Amino acid sequence: MMSRILTYRELLLAAIIIVLIAVFAYRAPGFASPESLANIFNDTAILIILALGQMAVILTRSIDLSVAANLSFTGMAVAMMNAAYPGIPLPVLILCALAIGAALGAINGFMVWKIGIPAIVATLGTLTVYRGMAFVLSGGAWVNQTQMTPIFLDAPRTSVLGLPVLGWTAILVIALIAVTFTRTVFGRTLYAAGGNPTAALYAGINVGRTRFFAFMLSGALAGLCGYLWVSRYAVAYVDIAAGFELDTVAACVIGGISTLGGIGSVGGAVLGALFLGVIKNALPVINISPFWQMAISGLVIIIAVLFNARQERRKGRLILRDAAKQRPSLVNAQAGGAAA
Amino acid sequence: MSMLTLEKQPIRHIPDKLSTPMGRFFGSWEALLAAVAIAIFIANSFASPHFLDPWNLSDATYNFTEKAMIAFAMTLLIISGEIDLSVAAIIALASTAMGAAAQAGFQAPALVGIGLGVGLLCGAFNGFLVARIGLPSIVVTIGTMSLFRGIAQIVLGDRAYGGYPTSFAWFGQGYMSDFSWWPALPGFEVVTVEMVAFVIFALIFGILLHWTAFGRWVYAIGNNAFAAQFSGIPVQRTKFALFLLTGVMSGVAAICLTSRLGSTRHTIAAGWELEVVTMAVLGGVSILGGSGTIPGVVLAAIVMGLVTFGLGLLNVPGIVMSIFIGLLLILVIALPIVVRRIRSKAAA
Q1: Which of A211, B63, B193, B232 is 20 to 30 A from A92, comparing alpha carbons?
Q2: Under CATH, what is the fold of the domain A2-18+42-313?
Q3: How far apart are CA B26 and CA B41, in angstroms?
Q4: Closest chain A C-alpha to B120 CA, distance in angstroms
Q5: B322 within 8 A of B55, measured Cβ to Cβ
Q6: A126 contact residues in B (CB cutoff 8 A)
Q7: Radius of gyration of chain A (CA)
């Protein structure tokens, strides 16, 4: 039943994206050409990767608002390393980006897991702290194209079979995440911890630790995107990707990842990101000012939340009726958990 | 607040004897904040010789008065278990509407009406989606934050509105000594219009939250919305009213800020939602709902104003200040949790 709703939802979203592309292609014939579509996918690659990290966190009933700030700090850090020590091989730098990002994510995760700060507050705080640290690290200076090594800049742009490596990276991440979420213990734990934390606790799942690793995953992917972003746009400065955390949440919400936790699929998150990517790339093509983009994505988020709520309510009715009866048991379980 | 529902409730201990009102005050969050405010005040006056200048201090109040006005309404909203992240975007939209009206030749009273009206409409939209349709407020207001500021961006693009009528400047730049009835005592000449507005709104919200039935409803809803519903409290209507209030107060802040800056760009008040939430939480409002006080938020506003002003006197750049604000937010939430845990361990 659940999987049928989800497939239905993803098919619907995919159909909407195809209709959108068809409409835009009608206005501007080149829009649906393979090169143009590859370009849109490539342009959306970073959003897709970030949205998958965000999805892991949202599945566990949390939210990570610090991804864009993490991206900015990590991007600045690797760009400065590359500028200062051009001899460091690229794989080492990418590992560094993953490690720095994961460390920043781990800080979020630690606060949520061990101190018990609500995720939204913890990451709202680290959002400003990480971006401020990017400023402190760079002193407000930019790292320009001329300071970075050619291989650092060219790696994500190298075209393989018509798609740049950046796009292939996104495909690789999608595949890895899809396998992780559906075929590994950690992936199923994410769903269990978010779907019903009390039941998960009784099943021997450490909900807090699961959240910690979700934040770390989100951080590591944000770190990777830090490198990809800086290399793609050939410049690193403090304000890169400002406000991008909202786009990642939007992609998840549009893709049907429930903010109540435990519901959502990798395909949904990817399609949600692609939906935003298609709109972003289509606006200039159909002569609408890019200034419209923010309002449109806001409207799309609201519509998507409305849509999600309708679907969740349909199956939620029976549970709600017993909510009053369930509450005491939940409290007991938590008190028991705290004592143990 | 769907993402926050799982957090563990603290186990309530019933003390053997009730503490005295005096003892309660000294053990309270407000007393701690007051001590911090005094400490920062003293530290600032040592750090810079210009700090104690009355006009300087008067200017420093602009650091918090506008944000605090929103924080008062946000306090009630957070206590009721909801949140509004779109407040800064409402400022941007209201300011844009006022700018457009000023261009069309409207005078100050009409501009004020438009600012309040836009705030009210935005609040009603948020309230409708959360209270009426029942959507989670965090996600809804992230959406409307993008929508409201996006509309401002569509209207303004990369341009700016200016040319506000001179009478409009009174709200953000005026001094109370402009009135003949204002006492000409030493020190009173530096009191700004915004300061008086801050005090009046603090009193209004303090009375509303602590001395009216409506205020008790807000606490009841935040502590247990189910029980509140069964006790006959109109839960959804109260929440709707709180979103309206937050919208209107964002409109008030928009009027003050626009009047003070004299121009509107689509980036106006960027990031304020974070500072407003920080202010409320620093003031002792539980982010999970159910507890918090207006005096606490007033003190928190003053503490934040003093910190940013002091750092500004020391030539610390704005983005580094935001690190302090972010750390402050995390610390004030983490500290009570850690202290409580240590205490309960010591008790056990």
Answers
A1: A211
A2: ABC transporter involved in vitamin B12 uptake, BtuC (1.10.3470)
A3: 20
A4: 19
A5: no
A6: 326, 330
A7: 21
Q: B147–A295: do the CB atoms touch at under 8 Å? A: yes
Tokens of A62: 């949390």
Residue B74 in tokens: 């946000």
**B250: nearest Cα among B60, B78, B123:** B123
- Please give the pLDDT value at position B2: 44
B228 Cβ contact partners less than 8 Å away, ≥ 6 residues apart? B217, B220, B221, B235
Show the domain range for B137: 52-180+188-347
Side-chain-side CA neighbours of A22 within 13 Å: the count stands at 6
CATH number at residue B248: 1.10.3470
Q: How many domains does chain B have?
A: 1
B323 and A291 within 8 Å at the Cβ level: the answer is no
Please indicate, yes or no, if residue B60 is contained in any of the structural domains. yes
Residues counted in chain A: 340
Task: Tell me the pLDDT tens digit for each residue of A77-90.
Answer: 999 999 999 999 99
pTM of the predicted model as reported, rounded to 2 decimal places? 0.85
Give the Cβ contact number of residue B201 at 10 Å.
21
At residue A5 the predicted structure's pLDDT band, cuts being 50, 70 and 90, is low
In a domain, B204, yes or no: yes
Whole-complex ipTM: 0.83
Is residue B6, in this structure, part of any structural domain at all? Answer: no
CA angle B274, B330, B267 (to 5 degrees): 20
Q: Which two tokens stand for residue A262?
A: 């435990």
Candidates A127, A247, A291: best to mutate against B (most CBs of B within 10 A) is A291
For residue A76, give the nearest of A118, A33, A134, A28 by alpha carbon. Answer: A134
Instruction: Choose among B157, B322, B337: nearest Cβ to A291.
Output: B157
Q: How many CB pairs (< 8 A) connect A and B?
A: 167
User: Does the distance separating the beta carbons of B6 and A61 come in below 8 Å?
Assistant: yes
CA distance B40 to chain A (A): 21
Residue type, B180: S
Interface of B with A in 320-339 (CB under 8 A): 320, 322-323, 325-327, 329-330, 333-334, 337-338
CA nearest neighbour of A17 among A287, A319, A274, A308: A274
Distance CA A81, CA A75 (A): 10
Q: Which of these, B48, B76, B84, lies nearest to B215 by C-alpha position?
A: B76
Contact check, Cβ <8 Å, A306/B157: no
Query: Taking a C-beta distance cutoff of 8 angstroms, is the pair B64, B304 a contact?
Result: yes
The continuous run of DSSP H or E covering A159 comes out as: strand A159-160
- Residue B290 falls in which region: left (phi positive, over 0), alpha (psi -120 to 50) or beta: left
Q: Choosing among B2, B96, B147, which should be mutated to test the A contact, i.e. which has the most A CBs within 10 A? A: B147
- Helix or strand (DSSP H, E) at A131: helix A119-138
- The verdict on B160 touching A (C-beta cutoff 8 Å) is no
Cβ separation of B146 and A338 shorter than 8 Å?
no
CA atoms within 13 A on the CB side of B16: 0
The pLDDT tens digits for A11-68 are 888 999 999 999 989 888 888 899 999 999 999 999 999 999 999 999 999 999 999 9
For residue B15, is it within any domain? no
Say what the pLDDT of residue B19 is. Answer: 64
For the cut 90, the answer to whether the pLDDT of residue A315 exceeds it is: no
Radius of gyration of chain B (CA): 21
